[in-house]
């Protein structure tokens, strides 16, 4: 393909992504994969170039663009070489005409930028939210150590703030390596690893991962238990939870897995009421801290959805609190940088539950925010997180 044809192909993919966002359809990743599946003549180098253009455009446009062409023109406005490819030749895009629509560059839709500003996210921190994410591994202590894993990786890696973490370039095909099949590591962002560390799980304890999902944090908690104690992983999402047994078997992790019914969680968890030493509440959230991995998510979030998340977060925090024994602890985690989903949720819980207090957290990274810590890509080179550890008196 010519460079101009790559630009036109990126415009076609962007049109599909924009249409999907407006109808709350499939993700940009899925749309791009399907487009490439139906355009098998596109070579690997062309695929990479097209994907790069698509994701650059998504990262550039704060509001949902009116069209793929408008989004690409926003890129071209700052790149004369790209603008020159709009020449109408061959399979390339039509020449640029005066006053045609050009998408506006920005961090996010205006209402969401206001929410971030109200949560004291600076312009520099906002830039970090839209960068390219690395790929972090967690050495599985049940089978190896970070140093031993580092010595056998086929590529160079660097360490991060988390004691078991190694960092590689994004896109490294780690799941094809023998060490992955052997369960020597899991893919897990350093920020997520630090959130697990905040719970300070010790061998022999009774631990609950209340919103286990696919089990990333569950496996980290299992490694901290070192095969001693009890670990319950539960969720209301059957599809996500169904991936955990295979992952746990590969990692050599021991955990009871329990599917919960929405609205009846405490009924199913009656045997754990007031008995857990430690509870992880990885609450559903807007994911504003993970835009590096899925930047079009900021086009999909609405104020109404944010309000729904806040209600769910308060509810799941309440449920988690019911499971903790006196003297036990709970860590609340969201991969969001909005105060409405982090500090505000914790402040409301503490105000309504005087038998709880905020506990000390020292994980080697993060900035105090309310009763917890905030991690950002700009400040900590992690995904964006808020987490707070609470102790029941």
What does this structure look like?
The structure is a single chain. A hairpin with a 5-residue loop joins strand 2 and strand 3 (165-168). 41% of the residues lie in helices and 16% in strands. It has helices spanning 3-22, 28-37, 44-60, 68-76, 80-83, 110-118, 123-129, 146-152, 178-181, 190-198, 216-225, 238-241, 244-251, 265-268, 297-300, 303-323, 343-352, 377-380; strands spanning 135-139, 158-159, 165-168, 185-187, 206-209, 230-235, 256-259, 276-282, 324-334, 356-358, 367-369, 372-375, 385-392. Strands 5, 6, 7, 8, 9, 10, 11, 12 and 13 form a nine-stranded mixed beta sheet that branches. It contains 18 helices and 13 strands. The longest helix is centred in the last third of the chain and has 21 residues, at 303-323. With 393 residues, it is an alpha/beta fold. It has three domains: 3-106; 135-187, Sun protein, domain 3 (Alpha-Beta Plaits); 196-392, Vaccinia Virus protein VP39 (Rossmann fold, 3-Layer(aba) Sandwich).
Entry keywords:
393 residues, alpha/beta, Alpha-Beta Plaits, Rossmann fold, 3 domains, nine-stranded mixed sheet, four-stranded antiparallel sheet, 18 helices, 13 strands, 16% strand, globular
Category from helices, strands and their pairing = alpha/beta
Overall shape: globular
Overall CATH architecture of the largest domain: 3-Layer(aba) Sandwich
Query: Spans of 5+ residues with little confidence (pLDDT < 50)?
Result: none
- Main beta sheet strand tally, sense and closure: 9 strands, mixed
Work out the radius of gyration: 23 Å
Give the overall pLDDT as a whole number: 96
Q: What is the CATH topology assignment of the largest domain?
A: Rossmann fold
The total tally of domains equals 3
- Whole-Å distance between the termini? 66 Å
**CATH class (first level) name of the largest domain:** Alpha Beta
